[in-house]
Amino acid sequence: MKTTALSAPHLQNEEAAFAYVEAKLWANGPVCPKCGTIGQSGRLQGKSVRPGLWKCYACRKQFTVRMGTVFESSHVPLHIWLQVIYLMNSSKKGFSTRQIQRTIGGSMKTAWFLGHRIREAMAEGYTPGGPKLGGSGMTIEADKTYIGGKSANRAYGPIPPKRAVASLFERGGRVRSFHVPNVTANNLYPIVARHTHSDSRFMTDDTSVYSAIGRTFKGGYETVNHSAKEYVRDDAYTNTAEGYFSILKRGIYQHVSEAHLHRYLAEFDFRYSYRIKAGYDDMARFDRALMGVVDKRLTYRTVGGGGTAHSAPF
Asked: Mean of the pLDDT values across residues 43-66?
């Protein structure tokens, strides 16, 4: 029978899953999460020993590669975690909580928690001091959209609210999106300033909210006049943004709480940033997401309350 991507040993076998994650996260040898010692630990053996258990000979504590990651304190087998990470990274339009539940079994609460932990692992560059987009000779596109249901689709009740999303696009590269309370220059200026290199060339539509920050870019600032039906002028356009928003709106789940919108944006940003055109296939994208699981442990309280590293708009 033909093998599939999900037939990989680390997606089917618990011991293989631990070996795979250890090889990725411990490139220089096992790292004790208690004392930080590298390479002074031994794997514990025996029928009663759970898979992946190590003992540090510096502090005498036991640990696994799960500790200090989004996998910590979870009863879900590690190979099931890896299956869900793969499915979320290979599904262009997202993989909903209900779909996770139907695929792996268990409760909806478990599936929902897995999804949010993995989205947090996929969040890159949102915190202050992270890598900036663009640079000398590169073009940054900026645009905004609104997420939410249409009033025409509402049978009764109030019109569903729209959530404003501002995105920055490194043309041919990464994207970074932010939920903002409303689209104003005061809200967007600090986001653009913090997350882009001023040496870049800056490109927007004809909205005035980017005018002040646009003039600070050393590579130049150009706009296209969408209100006059101008969409392309030589290489001046925001079509990268429009293409991404079409994926986001087709893929965003039927109902997304405002408290969790930033995590869903991080999920779609990640898949787009590491798309096939950027040299990543599904398994390479899976490996990239796996490298983000460290130091991003979430508790039920933080998942429920939306308090994460990049929950603020900038």
From this structure: 94
